[in-house]
Amino acid sequence: MILGIDAGGTNYDAVAFEDGSVVSAAKRSADTDDGFETLLAEVVEKVDGSGNAEVDRVVVSTTRVLNSAVQNRLPDCTNVVVPGVGLSPELAYSGDENLVADGCVDHRGRVTEPLEIDGEPSHGVVAVTAKFSTRNPSLETEASESLDAPTVALGHESGGALGFPSRAETTVANAKSKPVFESFESSLHDALDETGIDAPVYYLKGDAAMLSRESARTTPAHTLRSGPASSSLGLVALTERYAETPSLTNAVCVDIGGTTTDVTLVKDGFPALVDEVEAGCISTFYDGVVAVNTTAGGDTRLDEDGLTGVRDGPAVAFGGPSPTPTDALQFSARFRRATRRRRAKHCRRSAIPNRLRRRLSTASSPRSPSRYGRLKDTKTYPVRSSSAVRSPTLSQAVSQTGSTVSPTLSFLRTPLSAALSAVPSPRSAYVRMYTSTPHAAR
């Protein structure tokens, strides 16, 4: 049996897969301390009722690094470079702070000049990259041992096929990703141990391949597009299984999560790939699926200026601290139900003239602005572009994938999609929602 886990910013999902079919599934909130433990216990128990089902392997996809990157929540990093001779160190300046160390390894892997670091890193996250370190990593290893930093990433571990400047940039991305990934990864593996699941664990890379636990801990920036890769692979698999036309050739996949909306491209029956991946404040020279990530999702905080591009927690309707598009959707659905009840009540009064009945029905329609004026517990939030948000609209995101497909995005009419489409430019659209937690949580 294969256990699949998707760890997003809002929810954790797990499925047990055996003999080509899903035999159990579970979902838990990511905002709880025991989310992984209860998730794993439930999905395994559903298989045979005993909770002792044998698991052959565990495959994990996650958007944890991506979510932190696009919200600029990754830690600052000191980039220590050992350029040797014949190359300007500025070509490898990729950190928030950059230090140049003396020392040299030649193209044959021989140390021709000893290491000497002048200065101390200002940040607890450090990346160390030396030229030709893939031939001999001794200078990088010596530097990591001499630096007093809790998190260190080394250039020779980032990839042997990368040149010195690109390896330095990728190493910075790995260093900044490590604290976020390690926190999530340790929680997951503690839960696996607690549940008694003893199976190899693999993490889905951004190019839809798999990575061992040890490799993922060393190069966590590989998971930068793990979530979008999982979404596009799922689209291909589900289409082949259930669609009337099973041969999916070209398609656009739109995955609306709690923190981001990710648009990916399927080309010739497989997720399209690029050889450079970036998100937010980091960039890598790892392969990844073609994707555009916009910082707007179901739990994105809304304020008077519109979408902020930041997730503070769940929606107010689920006990969160800030109004979100999820609350807007719930509010809109509640009004539609109330409108239908009012319209039915009016129409049952046969004595009302038809002309007056039509006017009453129009006044209580979902598009009539006059009905909002009678509410005492609502607030109007104009959905305009925030200066802190620099993400594309859904339409722009689809076009940026290079797709020639023109899908009908009918859900753009909903409050959530109206908010998404309004992120980069001012619109006259408005999102109205309850600002009182008891009302919104009912």
Write a structural description.
With 442 residues, this protein is α+β, with helices and mostly antiparallel strands. Among the domains are: 77-176; 300-440, no CATH class. It has eleven helices and 23 strands. A six-stranded mixed β-sheet has the order 3-2-1-4-10-11. The chain has a five-stranded mixed β-sheet with strand order 7-6-5-8-9, sandwiched between helices. Strand 20 and strand 21 (306-311) form a beta hairpin. Helix 1 (35-48) packs across helix 4 (164-195) and helix 2 crosses helix 4. Residues 349-353, 355-394 and 401-442 have low confidence and may be disordered.
| Contiguous runs where pLDDT drops below 50 for at least 5 residues | 349-353, 355-394, 401-442
**Spatial order of strands in the largest sheet:** 3-2-1-4-10-11
Average of pLDDT = 77
Counting DSSP H or I runs of 4 or more residues, the number of helices is 11
Percent helix range: 25-40%
Structural class: alpha+beta
Taken from the alpha-carbon principal axes, the silhouette is globular
Radius of gyration: 26 Å
Strand content: 25-35%
Terminus-to-terminus distance: 40 Å
Number of DSSP E strands: 23
Largest beta sheet, briefly? 6 strands, mixed
